[in-house]
Amino acid sequence: MDEALDAFLEYIRQSESGSIHTQDAYYRDIHRFIEFLKKESITDFQQVDRKVISSFISQLRDAQLTEKAVSARTLARNISSLRSFYQYLNRVFDFEYNPFMSIKTPKIAKRLPEFLFVDEVDALLDSIDLTKDNGLRNRCMIELMYGCGLRVSELVNLKKEDIDYEQRVLRIVGKGNRMRMVPFYEDLKDLLQRYQQERNSDEECFFLNRRGKGMTSRAVQYILDDCAKNAGITISVHPHMLRHSFATHLLDNGADLRVVQELLGHQNLSTTQIYTHVTVDRLQQVYQKAHPRVNKTA
Q: Per-residue pLDDT averaged across 129-155, rounded?
């Protein structure tokens, strides 16, 4: 069974159908299931039926397989991982059926994306001293994530040739190797050109660390933490929050939802629509505070 998991993970890596985080999640979820099967003296994936799966789910919920009971979101991910694994077994090992196809995933309440207000973004950017070592680089990275809605993985993988200064667009290869073009504004163009001259390197990656190598996502998080602290922002700021802010602010200012979808590189419009909920919530809050009739008693 362990060999089948190794083969599946290699298939995922070869097909590039998931990020390293997705691959890690697949491994954890399926390895946990295999350990459960071994404990139940089940030695063949084809012995798994609805009764076995019900026992597995029950033990997940009761914290018998993990340190604490799993959330509905984690349970849904486990079921999805195992459904995909069995689809692979169906295809490669000629398994006759997928026992997870009939298992319903729990309903998950959609979490609204966290975002920064415009004045908080301004404070974040203004907190970066461009005269200090790596100040220009840090400003460019943070402003790109906000100004272009980049994922942190897209930022650290950005190449020099991906930047078209004449047209003021980035060529971004996102999830699923989908390519998109994202425009950027004139001030950001000036910052990027200044940094490119300052970096003075033939290294392929655009953003470099002190050793002249490409940045890591973790390093970007550390830099963002320091900048947020210097800006006096008390909430935890993560790179994806800048992407959320990009989308929210565009919609707040009248951008078309499908244009925002294209800029974010979302395959499905429903993924982008969650930002409209953020906008509506903000409208409701302002309305409740500002309209003179809201607190009138009948």
A: 93
Upper half-sphere CA count for residue 28 (Cβ side, 13 Å): 12
Instruction: Point out the residues that are catalytic.
Output: 151, 175, 240, 243, 266, 275
- Give the pTM: 0.60
* 223 touches 138 (CB < 8 A): yes
Give me the sign of the Cα torsion angle 220, 222, 223, 228. Answer: positive
pLDDT band at 222 (very low <50, low <70, confident <90, very high): very high
Cα 279 to its chain centre, rounded Å, is: 20
Number of neighbouring beta carbons within 10 Å of residue 133: 9
DSSP string, 136-203: HHHHHHHHHHHHH---HHHHHT-BGGGEETTTTEEEEE-GGG-EEEEE--HHHHHHHHHHHHHH----
Reported confidence tier of residue 72, pLDDT bands at 50, 70, 90: confident
Region 112-135 average pLDDT: 89
Kindly give the residue spans of alpha helices, DSSP state H, lying in the chain.
2-15, 20-39, 50-61, 72-92, 118-126, 135-148, 152-156, 186-199, 217-230, 239-252, 257-264, 269-290
